[in-house]
Amino acid sequence: MSKLIVKKANTNPRSKKKGVKKKPRGTMPVTAPNPFAAGIDIGSSEIFVCIIINGKQVVKSFGVMTRDLKQMVSWLKEHKVETVVMESTGYWWEAVMQIIEEAKIEALLVDSKALHSTLSRKTDVLDAARLQHLHAIGELRGCFRPPESLVGIRSMMRSVAKLTQESTRHLQRTGKLFIQMNLRLPQVLSDLGGDTAQAIIKDILAGERDGMKLARHRYPTCKASKEEIAAALEGKWNDDLLHLIAIEQRLWSTMRTEIAQLRLKISERLQEWQPEVKKGAAAKPAADAQAKTTTTPPPVSEEPVASPESTAKPRRAGRPKSPELLARESFESLIRDEIERLLGVDLTSAPAIGIDRAQTLLLELGDRDHFLRRFPSMRCFCAWTGLVPNPRVSGGKTLGQGNRRCNHVAQELRNAVMAMTRSSCAFGIYLRHLMSRMPSGKKAIKAAANKLARILYAMIRDGQPYDEDRAFPVTEARRQREIAFIQRKAAKHGLKVEPIAAPALPEPVKEA
Length: 512
Fold this sequence. Notes:
By secondary structure, this protein is of the alpha/beta class. 49% of the residues lie in helices and 10% in strands.
């Protein structure tokens, strides 16, 4: 048996004595794993026994009758078990320990609460020794981290999120200052960072007070009319509050500039970053690789062709794109290409996954090979996010759900799901169905976020874009529910729904 000896330096000069050797402190024996040890969890109606067979843990359950306990002892002797540790509450362990000790097997009993506390005195030295011992026997697992070369880019992306939140607070303070002057601009224009609001605020700080002149900055897409904007700009002007508004606007503008520079730096670093290829890395699907190598440029057409991925309304002919909008579109196109290069698929095709959220997922998870190497199965990935149940079971009964700390990926998935509560797509219907079945909306959002995590994992693993028919297949039960819903709506208005016969297929033309 070897011992880990940690000597603590004596920093007190008065306590030094010549010729006196102090005993080493913080000793902890380091032993090899004992293959002949067993663990027993005792309940009122069932007993679970875990032993090592051929280097693997095997768990077997037994009853609580005397003959069942004798079978358990015979099974332990058959596999040459020498020592047993038991966890139990109450007095269920007494008969089990008695039979085990009669079989000349060492039996130890531990309190269930002791398993969740320290095994001895808690000091820094003992904590370090205990960590080394647990790691030596393989009881510790490392946390997931993206590749080292991607950690800095991830930190910049998290800084972008924090700066965005802070810039929003400056706009909120600006709206509060307007309300103090009884200028109801925040109630008429919901986004004070928009083009209309910013143009009006700029003229107000320049000295303009006429509401109709300020309302001329209204953009055609603004829902409020010029008369409503002019009526909202009638109030009691205060120079001191306007000075505070100017300060908030300068801070907001500075933060927006820093955010734009950070986004540009992130895009440059993503272009420079090349994922490390290791042995045993998951290869990309052959179909996807072949599609990328055999792509041909599309035929040139005189008429403009709309992109199938674009769902935005066409812009009006008389309104050119602003430089900020052009820069934003260029940035999104660049990031989308980098996401597809590193993950093998465009994550923005998934429901509620925009370009910012997809970029955050890329920087949190890493490239495709690293992701699949750390999460070999869909179940491992969902468990890591914390979006799965964590029941505490004892004696065959569920005592409650343990709390899991969600990470950044889980929070992004939750935010994406909450944005789909009113969506008419299949995922939105699925979410509302969960919310109607589950007693709590939080549980429904958690279950839907788990579904979204599985969808994203399948997309990255298979290298295929999001397919709604594959994720939410139309079953016969779902079809019947939709028909029943339509019939109830029709009956409410005094109408009746009749099924129509399927149209007859045209007969094939016979060749002469």
